[in-house]
Write a structure and sequence with these properties.
Layout (H helix, E strand, L loop, with lengths): L1 H9 L16 H18 L5 E6 L1 H10 L7 E7 L7 H6 L3 H11 L9 H4 L7 E6 L5 H6 L10 H4 L6 E5 L10 H13 L7
Parallel strand pairs: 1-2, 2-3, 3-4
Helix pairs in contact: 2-3
Length: about 200
């Protein structure tokens, strides 16, 4: 997220780029540890309004946290390539030892069935926009995913009930946060509450 961080800083935002151990714990614990820590950091530094820009699992952590905690300073959220309705890749490969080892407990919670964590979190009750990619460099994963996808998440499953705006750009899951259009539209939504171009 370094390129996104630089662009947001140049646009006038005070940015805290949070890394977290995504393979070490289930989603609710990662959410409380990571998002809770981020909010505390912002408050300690005098933030009046707090925005989130997330990639992939990060969007689910924000949804999990906001579903259980009130954040009066919350303003807007931009999610890049989030598995908001899960991913078929987890459905097909989740029981494999290598998959579990690579993705950890949280990765296995991202299936598409109605009891998966993303599908139990419900609709958004906060201003959130989503940018999905439709280009894949992982053809094996893409064979498991119906419709356009980014190599990990389908365009359709990135969507979230209650979202404010939605955009599809021609980029991959791995590099969407470095895509110039994604960066430009992220700043646009944070400033105005809408993208320049909605698909």
């Amino acid at each position: 997220m370094a390129k996104m961080q630089r662009a947001l800083t140049e646009a006038g935002y005070t940015v805290w780029n949070v890394d977290y151990p995504s393979r070490t714990a289930p989603i609710h614990k990662l959410a409380d540890d990571t998002i809770g820590k981020a909010i505390a950091h912002c408050r300690q530094n005098g933030a009046i309004k707090i925005d989130f820009v997330t990639h992939s699992l990060g969007g689910i952590l924000v949804r999990s946290y906001l579903g259980r905690h009130t954040v009066p300073e919350l303003r807007r959220v931009v999610m890049l390539a989030p598995p908001n309705q899960g991913s078929e890749v987890v459905d097909k490969l989740g029981e494999l030892f290598l998959f579990k080892w690579i993705n950890g407990p949280a990765g296995n919670e991202l299936g598409t069935d109605k009891n998966s964590v993303p599908n139990r979190l419900g609709p958004a009750h906060f201003p959130v926009s989503i940018i999905a990619g439709d280009r894949s460099i992982n053809w094996i994963n893409s064979l498991l995913i119906p419709g356009p996808d980014d190599g990990k998440v389908s365009v359709q499953r990135a969507k979230l009930d209650g979202m404010s705006d939605f955009l599809v750009i021609h980029t991959t899951h791995t590099f969407i946060m470095r895509n110039q259009e994604a960066i430009r539209e992220t700043i646009q939504f944070l400033r105005t509450g809408a993208f320049n171009r909605t698909l």
